[in-house]
Amino acid sequence: MKRSSILFSLVMVAVMALAACAPAATPTPPPTPVPPTPVPPTDTPMPKDIVDTAIADGRFTTLVAAIQAAGLVDALKAKGPFTVFAPTDDAFAALPKGTIDSLLLPKNKQQLTDILLYHVVSGKVMAADLTGLSAAPTLLGKDLAVKVDMGNVYINESKVIITDIEASNGVIHVIDKVLMPPAEKAASNTIVDIAVADGRFKTLVAALQAAGLVETLSGEGPFTVFAPTDDAFAKLPAGTLDTLLLPENKQKLTDILLYHVISGKVMAKDVVGLTSAPTMLGKDITITVKDGKVYLNDTVMVTITDIEASNGVIHVIDSVLLPPQ
Question: Cα(first)–Cα(last) distance of the chain, in Å?
């Protein structure tokens, strides 16, 4: 028994000695951390130009069609900047029936272009700046009136309903009515204006001035004037015209001139169907046709017909008409 204990002790000592001599266990290294995969930053989309912004919006299909028809796409895609007062489709629909269809016709391209340019201001005018203006010059060369009323901004009579839609080349403000440019003042083209411009009626014009009839024959009318040329007045007896132009003979001169005027617009095709016509003097002139020519009072020939004026028509005659005594 004693021998067995000793043997067990020797075995244990040997085991411990072997354990002490064994190499130390290599520790397992911690796992290498894997860096997260970087997420590329999301690019902020660049703003579209004014035309593309209008196309993408969806409320400006008529405006876009008009810009295309007028050939202004490239102009409004240019660097600018521009400020556009953009009528909605509803604004265009409020125009009188057939207006937009007519404007989109090729023959009306210039009129359409003028209307569209009247909606564009050079420069980028934000709403905050707009409220400080009373007028804004357009690319048409005509100003828009700007006013603030009850907190709303109005361009002429059109209300701004949305502001500051920014584009890469400017800004859009939405309006509820189409802006129509003011009409050009028509060039004066009355009977007197035509007589003055023609150059063959210097004596007649001088007589109208001396008789105080310029304003009358520049009025609404309409009138039909049988106009003697300078050569026709020159046929009068020597000194007659000088006498008629004297202030004391104003009434006689007035009577002669009124004998050349008919109330209403009587074109040549109507004149040939008449035998007489009442003048503004209250006395008739006779009308006859001989060999295809029209004569007044048998001897005064109509040499040129149908010179139209804004307030009537002129027929040129080769002699002065003298009222019956």
Answer: 185
